[in-house]
Amino acid sequence: MIPEFAELTQEEVETMYAMPIYVAVLIAGADGKIDNTEIRKAVSLANLKKKKARKELIDYYHAVNTDYEDKLKMAIANFPADYKEREKLLIEEIKKVNDIFPKLERSFAIKLYASFKEIAKQIAEASGGVFGYMSIGYEESKLIDLKMIKDPAK
After folding, report:
1. Which of 9, 24, 27, 34 is the least buried, fewest Cβ under 10 Å from its Cβ?
2. What does the alpha-carbon distance between residue 42 and residue 105 come to, in Å, rounded to a whole number?
3. What are phi and psi of 32, to 5 degrees?
4. How many angstroms separate the CA atoms of 59 and 1, rounded?
5. Rounded to an integer, what distance in angstroms lies between the CA atom of residue 137 and that of residue 55?
6. Torsion over CA of 10, 72, 86 and 9, rounded to 10 degrees?
7. Which long-range contacts link 95-98 to residues 24+ away (Cβ below 8 Å)?
């Protein structure tokens, strides 16, 4: 466990480590289907973030990245196939950070929140537009701001 999570319960720690997966599945499945491009993007982002995340988040992403692809595929398989039902459950899981962020050091929570939003945006861009880049579909656009999470900077 990373030092920033020392004051959290085991359940809260698990929620925090699952957040990149929840965000990835939420955004990838927003249009009703999760395609391989979105899965590959989520996995490549996880690998990239453990090397090039904000300095304070490197340890977090090292911990998150352990068996990331397997955890991602397991989450996709375990959440409901119906995208509306899946979206509702994922939003409830993601909202749990609203109770956890105040327990974290403020600047760490702010950086983590920004990182989650970056993940959402990059996955939303993964399968749209010209040759699959730089376009966000309507369904994804409603979710990429992660409005279910209260901004810890405010």
Report:
1. 9
2. 26
3. 100, -10
4. 9
5. 31
6. 10
7. 95/148, 95/149, 96/12, 96/15, 97/15, 97/16, 97/19, 97/149, 98/149, 98/150
The first and second tokens of residue 143, run together, are 């979710």
26 token code pair: 């939420």
Residue with tokens 């304070």: 56
pLDDT in tens, 14-72: 999 999 999 999 999 988 888 888 899 899 988 888 888 889 999 999 999 989 999 99
Structure tokens at 65: 């990245």
What are 66's strand-pairing partners?
none
Q: What is the pLDDT of residues 80-138, one digit of tens each?
A: 999 999 999 999 999 999 999 999 999 999 999 999 999 999 888 876 544 444 567 76
Kindly state the tokens that stand for 135: 């376009």
